[in-house]
């Protein structure tokens, strides 16, 4: 019996406890980074793919379908990899979580780099597969509207997006896996009414990949400055509504379950 017990303990340590220790090892940051790269890749495959496929096959993909699809994809991504990296998929979200105190600033550069890489790889794959310019999958300000109006629209749309993300990640209003539904639904809703003017990107990485592969960065500043402005305002509003961040729920939502760091561990 003693030998059986020792065998069970040895098996548990080898096959269960050891892998868990390895997963939580801070040296395994690459898991987070790969998760962000893969998630952003999938997001841009759908977000840019709608426009590119619509150009290749006219009258097959409506604007409604093209803007709802990214919301559905984000919903799925949050559900299957949110616990690994927090499923930011967006430099503006990474910056917002860091400003909120839920995400370490030292991890922000790595997240942004892999998000840009993931978006670029997606645009490249789409270009190879569909054989149309990636610019048809990017976001540009509508003809007849100034870049300033496009900036305002992106800031406004991202303000709502980041408010939903921070709100569903807070200790007072954490709704668990249902946060995926809230974020995904908001992305679809924002696209339905905001996309005619600016494309409703709300994400510097989502626009960067197609612009790079398509070779057209016209007005790209709109899709950097707009989302960052909206994110900063959303963080300020979150402070007014709920006080400082850095608690258990917000940090876990922002960082995933891999070596989560909390600024205020006594706060929900």
Structural class: mainly alpha
What is the general shape? Answer: globular
Q: Total number of helical segments? A: 10
- The CATH first-level class comes to Mainly Alpha
CATH topology: Glycerol uptake facilitator protein
Count of the domains: 1
Got a strand count? 0
Helix content: over 70%
Please identify, by name, the CATH architecture.
Up-down Bundle
Elements, N to C (H/E):
HHHHHHHHHH
Distance between the termini: 45 Å
Largest sheet: none
Short description:
The protein is mainly alpha-helical. It has helices spanning 2-24, 29-56, 63-85, 91-100, 108-130, 147-168, 179-198, 204-214, 222-242, 248-255. Helix 4 runs antiparallel to helix 5 and helix 5 (108-130) crosses helix 8.
Please write out the topology:
Elements lengths: L1 H23 L4 H28 L6 H23 L5 H10 L7 H23 L16 H22 L10 H20 L5 H11 L7 H21 L5 H8 L13
Helix pairs in contact: 2-3, 2-5, 2-8, 3-7, 3-10, 4-5, 4-6, 4-9, 5-8, 6-7, 6-9
């Amino acid at each position: 019996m003693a030998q059986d017990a020792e065998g069970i303990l040895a098996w548990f340590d080898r096959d269960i406890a050891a892998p868990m220790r390895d997963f939580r090892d801070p040296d395994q940051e690459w898991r987070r980074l790969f998760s962000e790269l893969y998630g952003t890749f999938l997001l841009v495959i759908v977000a840019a793919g709608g426009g590119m496929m619509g150009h290749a096959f006219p009258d097959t993909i409506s604007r409604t379908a093209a803007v709802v699809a990214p919301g559905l994809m984000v919903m799925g991504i949050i559900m299957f990899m949110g616990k690994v990296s927090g499923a930011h998929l967006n430099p503006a979200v990474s910056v917002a979580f860091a400003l909120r105190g839920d995400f370490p600033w030292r991890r922000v550069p790595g997240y942004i780099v892999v998000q840009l890489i993931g978006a670029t790889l997606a645009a490249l794959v789409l270009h190879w597969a569909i054989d149309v310019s990636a610019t048809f999958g990017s976001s540009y300000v509508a003809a007849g509207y100034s870049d300033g109006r496009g900036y305002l629209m992106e800031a406004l749309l991202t303000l709502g997006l980041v408010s939903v993300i921070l709100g569903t990640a807070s200790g007072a209003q954490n709704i668990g896996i249902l946060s995926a539904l809230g974020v995904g639904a908001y992305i679809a809703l924002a696209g339905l009414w905001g996309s005619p003017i600016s494309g409703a990107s709300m994400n510097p990485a989502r626009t960067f990949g197609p612009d790079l592969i398509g070779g057209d960065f016209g007005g790209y500043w709109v899709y950097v400055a707009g989302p960052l402005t909206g994110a900063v305002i959303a963080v300020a509003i979150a402070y007014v509504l709920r006080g400082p961040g850095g608690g258990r729920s917000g940090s876990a939502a922002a960082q995933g379950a891999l070596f989560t760091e909390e600024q205020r561990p006594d706060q929900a």
